[in-house]
Design a protein that fits this description.
The protein is α+β, with helices and mostly antiparallel strands. Bound molecules: MU-OXO-diiron (FEO) and calcium ion (3 copies).
Length: 681
């Protein structure tokens, strides 16, 4: 478990799927390929060619619409030498490639542009004008004048490492946090919007322009969709239940066809405390009964801005306290990066859980718009949202306020079903009566999305992280990072290892290639792990992983415009230092052949997460989150990137860590080919 993981909170009686069906396939059958005959060809290239599926740009949020007649053409070759595992404290990339660091934590981007202080002495006010910490999901929005060399980079800042963020670590003085430390931590969360451009030498830099913006865990936001105005989101700050403050623990991301950014609220529950009776919309998400994760609720001075993190019942009604403050978190938030004055909008129809990210299926004119999302906690679920309105070139974010939220059931026979979480759906209604779980209205269903998914019997998964939708076939790939709480009695065909320390990647194809369908077929793309416990395409009896591609705990995922499936890992510190896998890494895979090669290894104790490229595929943006994750106060376990060793190549001497050397910083890395070719090919 890394520092950001939270414990399982699914205590529903909703069984793992294997216990409610006679399993059609044993794990042994799965691994020896008996199912291979049934599914071989289902995902194969020949059939896809025949399907002539539409192509859509996976990398740009332009209003381009896929043509229904584009032939299936993406079958990439991986044109680089695999990078070996390493513990070097740098970014190791193939020979022929180069890398630069862009917008590390603390980079000034707005206001008075306060310079980054290497001793972490910047104030909270400084941090509000600087790039935040713990870079995660991101997207590149290109400007039409020069799309491959001028854009807005929008980056999530998931959480903070207090030992690194403050000069001497966090302080607690007679049970209270100094106000400016709290202000700095809140400001280091959220999102950065940064205008960037590439010069003639191929180097990217920040433009101190009018689009640059920080959105933080205190920025005012609007609540839209069915939950707007619900009693469940009324607070002292917003008695009408239409607004809330901040977005927390922004993990993966999404983008829309109309050119906006979606940020996703993941492990927000731990930031709150409730010392009174926990309502179900707190308990099912793991709101703490002791103290908030960083004790923001204790900030000296007791400003409303901070005490709102204490969700205990204090007043006579919800309008007198912050009992409902946690209900303002757990959503998908839409941000218009091209309008610096726009207010971020929580799109509540898309459900409330620990959203890892939000992945768009290639939109089709005249059809609903579809987004996939995973709930990253042990034994939680996979969801999709289907808009009610049909896609047209002039739609905007309001299309996200009405639609159907579904949760996935993976049957053991390789089929699956999407179950509507809709108070007017007959099956949902019948199941909620039979289980004695009642919802007042659709707002209640959405605020309690996890409970609604329990009710319909969704399949408990091994911590769903990122998804990626293939731009042509519309197959969906999703990482299931690991699950220490599954065991032999709770395995099922879709989650076949218990415990599952290494994770796997599952994929599914919607019926008729229609992303809005309610039925699908699925198989497993890779069982990750060491050479002795891993397999590519197990249902097709594929090979084990080798030294060129062993990995564990897959997390970030993206399919680029050439059809390369990029896989990023989030192994815990101990899995990195004691396992055979080295530091966290990024691999490239061909989704059809199962060929897979390690492309990049990150610095020590970092996670590799967040990926996007320019439309031409020549500048690949990748985030290194929390290098030196296990640092103590002024005792660092990485010095990247200020150690001066931004990147290196296989065969070079490993870069070692100096515990009293440079303070580590999360940063975006821009990777390109020295011959100016397309990355990965
Ligand atoms: Fe923030 Fe599930 O990773
Ligand atoms: Ca993380
Ligand atoms: Ca993640
Ligand atoms: Ca993770």
């Amino acid at each position: 478990m890394n520092d950001n993981d939270i414990a399982e909170s699914n205590h529903s009686d909703n069984p793992h799927f294997s216990t409610i069906l006679v399993k059609r396939l044993s794990r042994r059958q799965m691994l020896t390929g008996s199912l291979g005959v049934a599914v071989a060809g289902m995902f194969g290239l020949p059939e896809l060619t025949g399907q002539a599926e539409a192509a859509a740009s996976a990398s740009t949020a332009t209003k381009s619409v896929p043509s229904p007649n584009t032939p299936f053409t993406l079958n990439p070759t991986l044109g680089f030498e695999a990078v070996p595992v390493t513990r070097s404290d740098t970014v190791t990339i193939p020979v022929g490639y180069k890398a630069q660091v862009l917008i590390p934590w603390g980079t000034p981007i707005t206001g008075n542009y306060p310079a980054y202080a290497p001793d972490a002495s910047n104030s909270g006010v400084d941090q509000e004008q600087q790039v935040g910490a713990h870079h995660d999901g991101m997207y590149y929005f290109s400007f039409e004048d020069n799309p491959n060399a001028h854009g807005l980079l929008v980056v999530n800042h998931e959480y903070v490492d207090q030992n690194v963020l403050h000069t001497n670590g966090p302080s607690l003085i007679t049970g209270q946090r100094p106000e400016d430390e709290v202000r700095k931590e809140i400001a280091a969360h959220g999102i950065s919007i940064v205008e960037i451009s590439k010069d003639s030498a191929g180097n990217w830099q920040v433009i101190n322009g009018r689009y640059n913006r920080r959105i933080t865990a205190s920025t005012p936001m609007e609540i839209r969709g069915p939950v707007r105005g619900s009693d469940l989101v009324k607070t002292k700050y917003s008695p009408a239940g239409t607004e809330t403050r901040g977005t927390i623990n922004n993990c993966g991301n999404g983008y829309t066809p109309w050119g906006t950014y979606l940020t996703c609220e993941e492990n927000w529950a731990g930031y709150f405390v409730n010392r009174t009776e926990l309502a179900r919309e707190h308990s099912r998400y793991g709101v703490s009964t002791n103290n908030g994760r960083y004790r923001w609720e204790t900030a000296q001075g007791g400003a409303d801005e901070y005490i709102r993190f204490d969700a205990s019942v204090k007043g006579g009604s919800a309008n007198e306290d912050y009992r409902n403050e946690p209900n303002g978190q757990g959503w998908i938030v839409e941000i218009d990066p091209f309008n610096p004055n726009s207010k971020p909008i929580k799109r509540t129809a898309m459900g409330r859980f620990a959203h890892e990210g939000c992945w768009l299926a290639p939109p089709q004119l005249g059809q609903p718009v579809v987004f996939y999302s995973g709930d990253d906690s042990q034994n939680e679920y996979i969801y999709k949202f289907v808009t009610k309105a049909r896609y047209r070139k002039d739609v905007n974010g309001d299309i996200l306020d009405e639609g159907t939220l579904y949760v996935a059931r993976f049957n053991d026979d390789g089929t699956g079903k999407w179950l509507a979480l809709d108070i007017n759906d007959p099956y949902f209604h019948a199941m909620s009566i039979s289980k004695g779980v009642f919802f007042m209205d659709q707002a209640d269903v959405l605020v309690n999305t996890r409970l609604a998914a329990d009710v319909v019997g969704a399949t408990k998964m091994d911590r769903p992280e990122w998804g990626a939708v293939h731009p042509q076939s519309r197959e969906v790939y999703m990482t299931l990072t690991n699950n220490s709480s599954r065991n032999a009695a709770t395995i099922d065909a879709a989650n076949p290892r218990g415990p599952n320390p290494y994770g796997h990647i599952i994929r599914w194809r919607e019926e008729g290639h229609r992303s809005w369908a309610t039925k699908f077929t699925w198989d497993i793309f890779i069982l990750a792990g060491p050479e002795a416990d891993s397999q590519v395409l197990p249902q097709q009896n594929g090979p084990a992983l080798t030294q060129d591609n062993i990995f564990a705990s897959p997390d970030g995922l993206w399919i680029d415009q050439n059809g390369i499936l990029w896989i990023q890992t989030d192994m815990s510190g101990s899995q990195q230092s004691s396992g055979p896998f080295g530091n966290n890494q990024m691999l490239a895979a061909n989704p059809f052949t199962g060929e897979i090669k390690r492309f990049l290894v990150g610095a020590q104790d970092c996670e590799v997460t967040g990926i996007v490229s320019t439309p031409d595929g020549k500048s690949l943006f990748v985030n290194l989150q929390h290098p030196g994750d296990r640092s103590g106060v002024n005792n660092f376990t990485s010095n990247w990137p200020d150690n001066g060793k931004v990147f290196g190549h296989p065969g070079e001497q490993a870069v070692t860590v100096n515990p009293s050397g440079a303070r580590p910083r999360s940063a975006t890395v821009v990777i390109s080919r020295k011959d100016d070719g397309v990355v990965g090919m």
